[in-house]
Amino acid sequence: MSAEPAFLLHRRPYRETSALVDLLTLHHGRIRAVAQGGQRPTSKSRQRLQPFTPLLVTWRGERELKRLTLMESRGTTALLAGEGLLCGLYANEIATRLLPLELPASDAFAFYTALLEALPAPAARALALRRYEWSLLEALDATPRFCTPDGGALDPQAQYRFDADSRAFIPAAKGLDGRTLRYIDQHDWQEPTLANALKAVMRAALAPLLGARALRSRELMLDLAKRRQR
Mind listing the pLDDT tens digit for each residue in 189-228? Predict the structure, then answer.
């Protein structure tokens, strides 16, 4: 096979000196593979297999667990720190948790690449994260439906909450107003006043897919926020 662009999502030890890695690839979505020698301190594969580093990889194997046969750097590692680093870890964690193995997700790959470029700039992070989250929902055919469960239009003056079963919005005493949800549906997400509502919609849509197990990256983000308040 020809070399494919990829990013490391997760790495853990495997047997004595190898590593078990999850990669986000351009054409094959998330793959899981063994990187032989990936745990040796002096191995080139360990040095290259770093988070947020653009890679070129090839692999062998017809089953779910592949074997990496080539791994090269194809660019500069995104230098992330603080909140930007935690956002990057969050992006890796949700892709690992959500994407089935080998489900094509080329749009998610593109928005992940754009996200890494945006994370060093605080003002650009939130919107880039929302677009990346949306691309994952699209890959899973799980994007919200900006209507009522029966397909009716949202009342701009009414309040709504997300219903996971129908992926639509149902009237609620307290929630997001129909006017805001209509703006979100138009994908005109540059408006700063939409930021909190957009985050709430994404979190609600992702929650049933992620399940009850807490996200480690989110816990770290909360810890960082608490420390800043002291």
Answer: 988 899 999 999 999 999 999 999 999 998 888 887 777 7
| Contact (Cβ atoms closer than 8 angstroms) between residue 57 and residue 3 | yes
Helix (H) or strand (E) holding 84: helix 82-98
List beta partners, residue 177: 159
Amino acid, res. 23: L
**Bridging pattern class, strands 29-35 and 4-14:** unpaired
Pairing of strands 29-35, 65-73: parallel
Dihedral (CA of 101, 85, 216, 207) sign: negative
User: What's this model's pTM, rounded to 2 decimal places?
Assistant: 0.93
Beta-ladder partners of 159:
177
Given a contact cutoff of 8 angstroms between Cβ atoms, the answer to whether 120 and 79 are in contact is: yes
